[in-house]
Amino acid sequence: MSSPLDLADARPGPAFTVTLDDREIEALPGQTVAAALWAAGVTSWRTTRGAGRPRGVFCGIGVCFDCLVTVNDRPNQRACLVPLAPGDVIRTQEGTGHDD
Amino acid sequence: MTDRPHLAVIGAGPAGLAATLAAAARGLRVTLVDSAAEAGGQFYRQPAAELRARRPQALHHQWRVWERLRDDLRAHLRAGTVRHLTDHHVWLVERRPTDFVVHALLGPEQEDPATVRADAVLLATGGYEQVLPFPGWTLPGVVTAGGAQAMLKGTLVVPGRTAVVAGTGPLLLPVATGLAAAGVEVAALVESAGARAFARHLRPLVSQPGKLAEGALYAAQLARRRVRPLFRHTVVEAHGTERVEAVTVAALDAAGRVRPGTRRRIACDSLAVSHGMLAHTDLAESLGCRLDGHVVHVDDEQRTDVPRVWAAGEATGIGGSALALIEGRIAGSSAAARLTGTEPDRAEWDTSLKSRRRLREFAAALDAVYRPPAHWSEQVTDETLVCRCEEVTAGAVRAAVDDLGAGDPRTVKLLTRAGMGWCQGRICGPAVAGLAGCRPTPSRRPFARPVPLGVLAQEPDHPTEEGPS
Ligand SMILES: Cc1cc2nc3c(=O)[nH]c(=O)nc-3n(C[C@H](O)[C@H](O)[C@H](O)COP(=O)(O)OP(=O)(O)OC[C@H]3O[C@@H](n4cnc5c(N)ncnc54)[C@H](O)[C@@H]3O)c2cc1C
Ligand code: FES
């Protein structure tokens, strides 16, 4: 099966590890939080304030704020915009994120 | 520093790039300000440099045009005639008696402020996608078609293994083709427009054979992968609990209503959906520029009605990258001529105006063809969320209208909180208006981006950045 990395003939540097709620996931240099999570098969990383429903990427370009996540203890970061660095600690976010 | 006039161009997509190059070539100092890490905007979005893609053109159309823009930009950057500020999210352009101050927040976290002073500004802020609600549209795995494209082009990832691409508009074809090329099984391409609508607008459509050929190329690539578009069909529901697992699609009748007995379920783990594009007009609005409906009003030279403010590309009307390029070139040339007191080259100018007219006619024809189904709101159950941020249901919006007498989106907002959340109504605006049975009104947001209170409190008096030399 072809992958987007094959299609664009991408040769990124070595993968590094970040954590999502203590689970280790691999990320590639240049990937945003959302991209690394999608690549790991994760599509939701937040629950809404009211009904506690799961959410992830919707617009992909920073407009909708559905993809909010806590990165290195800072809540309400847009996963589709924030690039990852080795060792980053990602936490799924509940509600407003202010209890994190 | 020289005394050449300084133009700030906001947005480095096709329109902003073309404007920057045209203005710089004609003697202006230009600062190009964009929120992305690299130039290109939506159409020419590039994989992040660290991904070291050797064949980024595999995800692109018209790569040559991009290469030329990129090389010209680099030459100007080296010569010092253009400065490109990446990762700068502009939240306000302030108009002062003799100049403008562009206020931005830096980096993806958008907390540190920066300002740029300029003699004139050119808004090339592009647009974003419109998605009308349907049951299940808030499930993870349901993404905007352009969002799927942006994630693919920019970070080389896909939302799942099996996707349905649905809605209406010319963007669906490249998105379906791109996902399929990247290894996703495209289970269905669902387009609500029908052949009859195309037939009614044949003349302006066939006047752009290049564009039609582009569409045909995508269609052929999809056919090779056995993806046959379902015309006059719509998604009525996305199913799933933690993420989308299937969608129900149905045929539409001539009036745009779901045909009874035509529902069918298609298994998938992602749904890329789009019902057209909306212009980013916040910066123009806060500058006091007149809007025409939902787009920034411009004259023949792409000038807004505020002196020394130009606008180009999708901010002034949705029409694709070719139109954005030509509008950008016209705007940049006009700015250079007006600010340096020279005349634009007549022959070149006339050619540009002619191409713009043709491309606008083509865009208007596409716009007439690709309309969301007329009765889309009939599929929106009362339990369906309309405002994703504040979790306001269609039932609440309907109650505000039917029981409390709300007659416009603003009143609905005050009564239900629809549009008061993080995205400031950018996503739910058209749906709220549609359900309330009124025209959407410009929302008059004070700032184009959320601004930390600390930044507002300590706004510096003096610009932190000057233009290129
Ligand atoms: C998500 C998405 C994906 C798309 N993908 C395709 C595609 O694959 N093929 C296709 O034919 N068309 C695509 N389109 C349509 C596309 O928008 C146009 O064809 C074309 O890119 C318009 O050019 P533009 O220069 O007007 O705007 P854009 O290309 O949208 O460029 C606008 C630029 O302005 C910047 N910007 C906006 N607001 C601010 C701000 N406040 N501060 C700083 N910077 C700002 C943005 O980051 C962006 O770089 C897509 C649209 C969207 C929304
Ligand atoms: S997906 Fe919309 S802001 Fe990130």
- Measure the end-to-end span of chain A: 40 Å
Order of strands side by side in the largest beta sheet of chain B?
3-2-1-7-20
How can the largest sheet of chain A be summarized? 5 strands, mixed
**What characteristic shape of chain A results from the CA principal axes?**
globular
The beta-strand count of chain B equals 22
Count of alpha/pi helices of chain B: 14
DSSP strand (E) fraction of chain B?
A: 15-25%
Instruction: Provide the helix percentage of chain A.
Output: 10-25%
Number of strands of chain A: 8
Quaternary organisation of the protein chains:
heterodimer
**What is the typical, i.e. mean, pLDDT of chain B?**
92
End-to-end Cα distance of chain B: 5 Å
Q: What would you call the shape of chain B?
A: globular
Number of H/I helices of chain A = 2
Strand-residue proportion of chain A: 25-35%
Bound molecules: flavin-adenine dinucleotide, FE2/S2 (inorganic) cluster
Low-pLDDT windows of residues of chain A: none
Strand order of the largest sheet of chain A: 2-1-7-5-6
Overall SS class of chain B: alpha/beta
